[in-house]
Design goal:
Strand order of the largest sheet: 1-2
Order of helices and strands: HEEH
Number of strands: 2
Number of domains: 1
Helix content: 25-40%
Number of helices: 2
């Protein structure tokens, strides 16, 4: 997360991380995707990078506004409960 507009160096940094992970991943690891969240005075932008061209990345949910903190917590708790129930 950056408290400013996106800069070219942010993309370079994330690409470096993705490349390192891809070169050092272990069996069963999936290729990583990075999110860069930039917040300026009156705007929040979200960018993603796969570190290479990918045709197999799809959006599961598209929001025009980020949810508030309570909504995120509720979704995380719900997902955690689903995982716990599945692993029983």
């Amino acid at each position: 997360m950056k408290a400013r507009k996106l800069q070219d160096s942010d993309i370079t940094q994330v690409t470096r991380y993705l490349t390192y992970f891809r070169e050092h991943k272990i069996s069963g690891d999936r290729d990583p995707i990075a999110l860069i969240i930039c917040k300026s005075y009156d705007r929040i932008d979200v960018y993603y990078s796969a570190g290479k061209d990918r045709d197999d990345i799809f959006v599961a949910e598209y929001l025009t506004k980020l949810p508030d903190e309570n909504e995120i917590i509720k979704k995380l708790v719900k997902e955690q409960n689903n995982i716990l129930l599945t692993n029983r």
